Amino acid sequence: METDPTAVCELLVGLGEVTIVDVDAVDPDEPIRVHIETRHPRPDCLACGTPAVVKDRPRVELVDLPAFGRSARLLWRKHRWACPDDTCRTRTWTVQEPRIAAARLGLTDRAGRWVAFQVGKHGRTVNEVAQDLGCDWHTVNDAVIAYGTALIDDDKDRIGDATALGLDETLFSRVGRWRRQAWSTQIVDVGEGRLLDVVEGRNATGPASWLADRGETWCSQIRWATLDLSGPYRNVFDTMLPAAIQVADPFHLVKLANTKVDETRRRVQNETMAPGPQD
């Protein structure tokens, strides 16, 4: 059994080749802050082989998984090394340790994997996970994009087979100073009720390109294609899935029918109530 307090602390933190320098846990309203540094040996310059010297010790604060019912932070005291040889082109470099954190992300590696799992697997919102970690929305969202994109790229079979495909537009966000509308197209396996992918825009370009990437064999399996009476989406199905039977979305079909009935009712009402020539 380990009894050395420093070693026990390192085991609790769970990172190899890391020394616990200090722990701040006095204020119960503040996150637990664990100060760490790596135990790597002094490196040589990769360009000339000269033993490096420490230039400075920047401190990076990373959001970590909660500990003991409180949010936690890792304060990583990095080593920024410098080559002392004035003739060497390599001036400085900073030690990177992907087991602690990925470059340019505000979460530790384990926290980044956890948030991607929470959002991707359990369907939790980014804001909800950010509240659990006691950090801002952007910190969690950046990690979800980074880790989630890698998982999607590695899973070549995530799309699977489908026999019924649906396209629908969604207002994805409002961007810029003038809050410009940015639309997206959702590609859905209608038979399984499963979202397959999201592509940019609400024209034919994105969905057609997506179907082209699936290949002719995959597209030949699609027997039904649902749409919301959109002209661009109809062109996608006519071009990429010519053998599929196109089915109008009942919601949009009923909505369009009700709109036409209202227009007819108003027209007939106006014509009936309009004053005659003798009036």
Topology:
Elements: H1 5-13, E1 18-24, E2 32-38, E3 53-56, E4 59-67, E5 70-77, E6 80-82, E7 92-94, H2 109-120, H3 126-133, H4 137-154, E8 164-175, E9 180-189, E10 194-200, H5 205-214, H6 216-219, E11 224-227, H7 231-240, E12 245-248, H8 250-273
Parallel strand pairs: 2-5, 8-11, 11-12
Antiparallel strand pairs: 1-2, 3-6, 4-5, 6-7, 8-9, 9-10
Strand composition percent:
25-35%
* Rg estimate, integer Å: 29 Å
Strand order in the largest sheet: 10-9-8-11-12
Helix/strand-derived category reads alpha/beta
By DSSP, the count of extended strands is: 12
Question: Number of helix segments?
Answer: 8
Task: Provide structural commentary.
Helices cover 34% and strands 28% of the residues. By secondary structure, the chain is an alpha/beta fold. The protein is elongated and about 100 Å long. It starts with a helix and ends in a 6-residue tail after the last helix. The mean pLDDT is 88.
Question: In a few lines, what is going on in this structure?
Answer:
The chain is 34% helix and 28% strand.
List keywords for this structure.
8 helices, 34% helix, Nucleotidyltransferase, domain 5, 5-stranded mixed beta sheet, alpha/beta
